[in-house]
Every structure is written in C-alpha cells, then in structure tokens.
Write a structure and sequence with these properties.
Blueprint (H helix, E strand, L loop, with lengths): L9 H31 L9 H24 L5 H22 L6 H36 L7 H7 L1 H12 L2 E8 L5 E11 L2 E8 L11 E9 L5 E11 L29 H4 L7 E16 L1
Antiparallel strand pairs: 1-2, 1-4, 2-3, 3-6, 4-5, 5-6
C-alpha cells in the first residue's frame, strides 16, 4: 500500500490550480503556433549555426550521460531525475536525426542509430527511474509499518522509556493534530491508551469521517502530563482507523458513544467527548504507528 500523504494547504492548491490553468492556455497557444509553422515554414533552409547547434546539443547530451553514470556509480538518488533528463535528450536526438536526414543517404544510418542505440538506452533509463521511484515509495511505506518500532526503541531507553511510560500510563491530556481535507490544520482532544508497544487513539467525531482518517493519515499527537504540566511528549506518525473486528480487548468500542467508561477514558477526556451532545456522534479507534517521538519541556 502506498503511503497516504496529507492534503496540501489551501494556498498551495490555489497556486497549483493557477499554474495548471496557465499551462493549459500555453497548450492552446502552442497548438496554434504548430498549425502556423506547418504551413509557413520553408521546406529548405540554410543556416550558419548548424554546426554549433548540433555540437552544443551533443555536449549537453554528454553532460547528462556523465551525470547519470556518476549517480549510478555513487548510488545517488539524483539518478532518478538524471535518467529522465538523459532519456529525453536521447529521444529528441533520435527524432531530429531521422527528421532532418529524411530523403538523404544518411537516413538509414539515423534510423539504425535510433532503433539500436538511442531508443533502447532511453527506455532502460526511464525504467531505472520508474523502479527507483517505486523503491522510494516502498521505503516510505515500510517506515510506517508496525515493524518500524519507534515506540519500542524509545521505551528501551532506560531514562526516556520510564518517563514516556509514566506520561502515557498516567493522567494526561492528548491532542490530535492533522491536516484536514480542506487543507487546513485541525486538532481535537482524544483518548490515548498504550497496549504494550502499540498506541491506540479514541476519537469522538460528530459523524463518520469521509476521508480525514478513512485512509492512513499523517498526524501529530501531543501528550501533556497532568502531574507535571511542564512536561509533554510529541508523537508523530501514521494513524490508521480500526474496523470493529480489529479493535482489541478493552478498546473494542461501539460506533456510538458509550455510557460506561473504558480504559481510553483514563486520559481525562472532557465530558462532552465521553458523551457527545450530538446524538449522531460516534467513537472511532485508530492505531498510531509512531515515526518520531520528541520530549517537550518548558
């Protein structure tokens, strides 16, 4: 499963929308320009810059190939854009070679070079870029799986582990912060419960969320120690909603808010969260897969 990224901020989405509109307008203008060139350009044209144009292009192609080779030998992730740029230059080279040699004795040589060298090399480079992109995606996905064990590592740290357990297991207030579907930040008080090295969140929502937490969401949970208000921890990670059958033991909560307290209520949730005034309010349970834990102290 690919990593689900939070929605972009509203301002960023507006800028990208304006960019998309500008590019579409450019496409329309380019179509008109192509139509004009197809009827206005001469069949034959003489220029004194022919040698400079081709040698300059080949120098750029050489630089791209050398950069791609360096990135491959040094195992650099810049190999992805370098491969795409080099493949593009090779395909353009093949096109211009065949188009400009059409009707001449050099056409067969240009065709053979394109089919046997330039197009296969460009195909391999694009395949390399695609596979490396998938590897990056899979690496990001693995980072948020239960095996990431960020919480487990923190708990094994003798000093920090004891302090973290005391905060998570004792009286505390937890707030969940995330980016909503509207691109704006949202936060709410939630219940937090630790079962071994797993963290479970109890969330009371006015309705079934359509997309905020329907898929894996990147969130930040701040836990404030009520016995020492100057101490808190921030846990960043991925929140994944649990289905009814996936909810273990004491946190197998009904969809509706319950009148009886549960272990998740130990975090001193406000009464309105434990018994929401909105009768359509429902309780959701999410598992938090930590990717980073930070001690906060004033």
């Amino acid at each position: 499963m690919a990593t689900q990224h939070p929605p972009l901020p509203a301002a960023t989405r507006r800028r990208r929308f304006r960019l998309g509109i500008a590019l579409l307008v450019s496409c329309v203008a380019l179509v008109a320009w192509i139509a004009d060139l197809s009827v206005s350009l001469p069949m034959h044209y003489e220029t004194e810059g022919w040698r400079l144009a081709w040698t300059g292009y080949d120098v750029a192609e050489l630089g791209a190939l050398a950069t791609t080779a360096y990135c491959a030998l040094r195992d650099r992730w810049a190999l992805i854009p370098a491969s795409v740029v080099t493949a593009t230059l090779l395909l353009c080279d093949a096109w211009f070679d065949m188009a400009l040699s059409s009707g001449t004795d050099d056409f067969l040589i240009s065709l053979a070079t394109a089919l046997l060298v330039e197009i296969p090399t460009a195909t391999v480079l694009l395949l390399v870029a695609w596979r490396l992109t998938r590897r990056l995606r899979d690496k990001a996905t693995d980072a948020v799986q239960p095996g990431a064990a960020t919480l487990d590592v923190a708990l094994r740290d003798a000093a920090f582990g004891a302090e973290l357990r005391a905060i998570l297991d004792g009286p505390s207030i937890a707030t969940l912060a995330m980016i909503g579907t509207d691109g704006e930040p949202h936060s709410r008080v939630v219940g937090l419960h630790r079962e071994g090295d797993a963290l479970l969140l109890s969330i009371v929502a006015p309705r079934q969320p359509s997309s905020d937490l329907a898929k894996d969401a990147q969130v930040s949970v701040s836990v404030f120690d009520l016995t020492n208000p100057r101490t808190a921890v921030e846990i960043r990670g991925i929140a994944r909603l649990l289905a009814d059958g996936e909810r273990p033991g004491p946190v197998a909560l009904a969809r509706e808010a319950e009148p009886t307290p549960t272990p998740l209520a130990r975090t001193s949730e406000p009464p309105e969260l434990l018994d929401p005034a909105d009768p359509s309010g429902i309780r959701l349970v999410a598992r938090l897969f930590p990717t980073a834990i930070t001690r906060l102290a004033s």
